[in-house]
């Protein structure tokens, strides 16, 4: 209904003036959102938008990034790197989740930092950050608290990791970070078997000088065909203390559902002799800021394969979530999330 007709309708039926203003404002917002969503749909393909979509700001902030979407199977988050830290604002952040599953995400010619014909100035102005929670583990399958126990993937988890690799197969990856746990490392390695560049992920052994010397690669050409993989305990899952190895349902029966829910979903209350989400976030975010963020600022494209709570912590930092918002954040196993990060200035 046009706004003029809407106003006549309200007057005819003697709707209070303050209510007319509120309803009119609501209609304006809905019309703008619909126009923006329609334009965004036309720009990037058949996606279902979730979050804030502002078409004019999208082109203003990211107009120099040509992204021809050729698949619909990934979550994408757009944000800015500002003065060494990530800045997320309603007017320039967009989270989209596709409804179908295909084999690749962005046209490799137009993906961030993948066009070698562009000058280095443009190349370093943006970077891709891929976050993947590991595929299903054997203890996920058995409904056990896993925490920092080093449990491998199930067959389903292997398939999830491979599918994740297909979804990100056209996104350039320069560096990979994983936790020190095998399920995250398996996920990263399996995902990279599907990458179109066919580079080999190589675990970097920097724990001692001897380890560095023994794992050194002496061919420069071979080095160019490899992707360094750095493992860090700081990216490990939250340590669940005395709950590790216990069945989740049996634990709820023993301690009560409310107590177990408090241990699992509160921000700063740890389980017996374990970590709270706050404690997990302190180590994970500190590592991200010290080791990973500088790589992104230099224009490197980074993939992180880790765990539900360590990734929630990083997302909390990137999206500036509150402690109440982060505890309700759910991450599915084997589903990639993509952040396209732009520096505010070159």
TrEMBL record:
Name of the protein this chain belongs to: phosphoglycerate mutase (2,3-diphosphoglycerate-dependent)
Enzyme class: isomerase
GO molecular function, one term: phosphoglycerate mutase activity
Biased composition (Polar residues): 104-118
Region (Disordered): 104-124
Active site, per annotation: 134, 237
Keyword entries, A-Z: Glycolysis, Isomerase
Recorded family membership: Belongs to the phosphoglycerate mutase family. BPG-dependent PGAM subfamily.
Pfam families to which the protein is assigned, alphabetical: His_Phos_1 (PF00300)
Top-rank taxon, per record: Eukaryota
Transmembrane residue ranges: none
Record: residues binding substrate: 133-140, 146-147, 183, 237-240, 248, 264-265, 308-309
EC number: 5.4.2.11
InterPro entries referenced in this protein's UniProt entry, alphabetically: His_Pase_superF_clade-1, His_PPase_superfam, PG/BPGM_mutase_AS, Phosphogly_mut1
Lineage: Eukaryota, Viridiplantae, Streptophyta, Embryophyta, Tracheophyta
Biological process (GO), any one: glycolytic process
């Amino acid at each position: 209904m046009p706004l003029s007709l809407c106003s006549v309708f309200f007057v005819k039926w003697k709707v209070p003036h303050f209510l007319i203003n509120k309803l009119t404002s609501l209609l304006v917002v809905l019309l703008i959102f619909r126009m923006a969503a329609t334009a965004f749909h036309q720009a990037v393909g058949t996606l279902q938008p979730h979050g804030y979509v502002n078409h004019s700001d999208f082109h203003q902030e990211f107009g120099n990034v040509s992204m021809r979407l050729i698949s619909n199977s990934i979550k994408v988050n757009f944000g800015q790197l500002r003065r060494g830290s990530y800045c997320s604002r309603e007017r320039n952040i967009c989270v989209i989740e596709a409804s179908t599953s295909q084999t690749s995400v962005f046209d490799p010619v137009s993906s961030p930092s993948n066009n070698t014909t562009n000058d280095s100035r443009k190349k370093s102005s943006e970077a891709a950050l891929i976050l993947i929670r590991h595929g299903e583990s054997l203890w996920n399958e058995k409904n056990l608290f896993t925490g920092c126990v080093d449990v491998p993937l199930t067959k389903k988890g292997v398939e999830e990791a491979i599918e994740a690799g297909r979804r990100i197969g056209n996104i350039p990856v320069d560096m990979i970070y994983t936790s020190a746990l095998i399920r995250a490392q398996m996920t990263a390695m399996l995902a990279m078997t599907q990458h179109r560049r066919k580079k080999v992920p190589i675990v970097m052994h920097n724990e001692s000088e001897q380890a560095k010397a023994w794992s050194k690669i002496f061919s420069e050409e071979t080095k160019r065909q490899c992707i360094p993989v750095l493992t860090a305990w700081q990216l490990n899952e939250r340590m669940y203390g005395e709950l590790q190895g216990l069945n989740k349902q049996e634990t709820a029966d023993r301690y009560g559902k409310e107590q177990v829910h408090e241990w699992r979903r509160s921000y700063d209350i740890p389980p017996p002799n374990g970590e709270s989400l706050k404690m997990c976030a302190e180590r994970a975010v500190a590592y991200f800021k010290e080791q990973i963020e500088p790589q992104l600022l230099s224009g490197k494209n980074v993939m992180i394969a880790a765990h539900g709570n360590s990734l929630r912590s990083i997302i909390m930092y990137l999206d500036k979530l509150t402690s109440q918002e982060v505890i309700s954040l759910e991450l599915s196993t084997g589903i990639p999330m993509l952040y396209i990060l732009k520096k505010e200035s070159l």
